[in-house]
Design goal:
By secondary structure, the chain is mostly helical. The protein has helices at 5-22, 33-47, 66-75, 83-108, 111-122, 125-131, 137-156, 161-179, 182-197, 209-242, 257-265, 273-282, 291-306, 319-338, 344-369, 382-404, 409-437, 440-451, 465-471, 483-490, 502-507, 510-515, 535-539; strands at residues 54-55, 58-59, 457-460, 496-501, 517-524, 527-533. It has a four-stranded mixed β-sheet with strand order 3-4-6-5. Strand 5 (517-524) and strand 6 (527-533) form a beta hairpin.
């Protein structure tokens, strides 16, 4: 019995929910962003200050507050921020984005293409990584995609289009509350490019653009005006002029950054892009309807290429567009195959995928069974990586076998999907928890919990959000370049501890180094952290929990 399309998307959403939510708290928050955002939400909950985000007791003027509000809301039932509750908004937004992509594909093309697009999105590497972490970008992508979906409903509606346009602008306003002006600019640039490509630029008069901009900006101002009044000039300058201009500290990159980065993050579906380009170019005179996702992709890609700050996850809003383009290619390929017009351009990407999978699987097994080079660093997670490596070998070998047997493209697509679902399941159930367990930063925090009492002084030479979160301790005073202040703390007769980056410790004067003892070190993100103690702290560590 063939399943209906509604049943299929329900099954797909259920599978995605099982993977995204089933073990979402199975590994600790990692890096610097996840603990930072969790800590900001925790301080909101504990202080009741929801208008202005704070981190380590200080104003945090770098992001709008929607993500922190959502984390706090999801954490209420738990009484505190947990790894699960902190990631829950991203995972739920990811499920919503999968559904929106299906609805977009169904509206643009047909239910089957929408289903394929939804599956391509949820099995893209970058989407999976961001939807299982604490970040703004999947929520931002959800809001901007919703804005474009409402716009397209209004554009294609014979009557009542105005209400869809208004809903589109409201969605842009929500996107701005997540991540600033880009939430309005990307959808607006997309729809203008689309109308120009449609040779329907006069339609701008009918989409209530002026009123829409007022609505979208007005939604942002409902929070921004009182926040700036409460935060003062320094907060206002940072949130509007610095962050609004796309400057986010150490994330600057060259304009061509995404040309090199995107192909590495859009696996495995990037393998289908060359064949899709050949197909669409050959069929360009047949009126294929890919203008909207194409303009959407181009607008987002160029916009973030021009913005100074660059990170892989910033491109997440274009992944639904990429998925729609790839889905149209694959659905057309299946239709042509049924008409006995199968071409090598359709089967070649599958061969590349299965061949690369087989080679990588064999290479991984050889590496795991050895004990040389970088493999020594991942020995504790070998048991978790073995199933993934075996899956790659089995999947790649069977895929090539099915290709030689000339199985249908739908059959190959379904088999590829099974491999990816299994791979992501193993990743969240075994690989990520195993990697988390061997992170040295968490071990350092456990030692500090046993060593440091709640009244004992802890200072830092850097922003200590990681330690704020895992030690449940704030504020931790930050003393960067004031050597006399550090010396004063370290010469105290009471126990005092100093968290310093490796470079800060190495550059410290000899007198200060003689005052402290290195109690422990750990790699956290990209920096090496030293836990230093004064003579009192180095003498007899205390066994009091924080």
């Amino acid at each position: 019995m063939r399943l209906g399309e509604n049943t299929k998307i329900t099954v797909l959403l259920f599978i995605c929910a099982f993977i995204l939510l089933g073990n979402l708290g199975g590994w600790e928050l990692a890096g610097t962003d996840e603990p930072r955002y969790a800590q900001i939400a925790r301080e909101m909950m504990e202080t009741g200050q929801y208008l202005l985000p704070h981190c380590n007791g200080e104003l945090y003027p770098h992001k709008p507050p929607v993500l922190f509000w959502l984390i706090a809301l999801c954490s209420r039932p738990f009484g505190d921020i947990t790894a699960f509750s902190a990631r829950l908004p991203s995972a739920l937004a990811g499920l919503g984005l999968i559904l929106l992509t299906y609805l977009f594909g169904k509206k643009l093309y047909d239910p089957f293409t929408g289903l394929v697009a939804a599956f391509i999105l949820c099995t893209s590497k970058e989407f999976f990584e961001v939807a299982t972490s604490v970040h703004f970008d999947v929520i931002f992508a959800f809001c901007s995609t919703l804005a474009l979906l409402f716009f397209y409903h209004g554009y294609t509606s014979s009557a009542g289009g105005k209400k869809f346009y208004i809903l589109s602008y409201l969605s842009m306003g929500c996107a701005q509350l997540v991540k600033g002006p880009a939430g309005m600019l990307i959808p607006l640039i997309t729809l203008v490019l689309f109308l120009a490509a449609q040779k329907d630029i006069r339609k701008i008069r009918e989409i209530h653009l002026g009123k829409g901009i007022v609505i979208a900006v007005g939604m942002l101002l409902l929070w921004l005006v009182p926040a700036c009044l409460a935060g003062g000039k320094a907060y206002t300058d940072n949130i509007i002029f610095t962050q609004g201009a796309g400057r986010t500290g150490g994330h600057e990159g060259p304009f061509y950054f995404y040309l090199l980065d995107f192909p590495l993050k859009a696996v495995p579906w990037i393998l289908f892009l060359p064949s899709a380009c050949i197909y669409f170019w050959g069929a360009r005179k047949k009126g294929l309807n890919i203008r909207l996702p194409l303009m959407w992709f181009a607008a987002t890609f160029v916009f973030f290429s021009l913005v100074p700050a660059k990170r892989s996850l910033y491109l997440l809003p274009l992944y639904p567009a990429f998925s729609l383009i790839m889905a149209k290619f694959l659905s057309d390929a299946c239709a042509l195959e049924q008409a006995e017009q199968r071409s090598k351009i359709f089967s070649t990407p599958f061969f590349l995928f299965f061949a690369i999978l087989l080679v990588c699987g064999i290479g991984a097994l050889i590496a795991l069974m050895g004990s040389f080079g970088a493999v020594k660093d991942i020995m504790p997670v070998k048991s978790a990586l073995y199933p993934v490596a075996f899956l790659a070998v089995l999947g790649g070998g069977l895929g090539i076998y099915f290709l030689r047997r000339k199985k249908s493209l739908r059959y190959l697509f379904n088999f590829l999907g099974i491999i990816l679902v299994c791979a992501y399941f193993f990743t969240v159930e075994t690989v990520l928890p195993a990697i988390s367990a061997m992170r040295p930063g968490q071990e350092l925090c456990k030692k500090m919990q046993d060593m440091i009492g709640p009244r004992e002084l802890v200072i830092a030479s850097f922003e200590p959000e990681y330690f704020n979160y895992f030690l449940h301790r704030y504020p931790i005073p930050v003393i960067k370049d004031d050597v006399p202040a550090v010396e004063k703390a370290m010469t105290s007769s009471k126990k005092a501890y100093y968290l310093a980056k490796e470079t800060d410790y190495e550059d410290a004067p000899g007198e200060l180094k003689n005052m402290v003892t290195v109690l422990d070190t750990a790699e956290i993100g990209r920096i090496k952290v030293y836990l230093l103690g004064n003579k009192a702290a180095a003498g007899s560590p205390k066994k009091t929990r924080l």
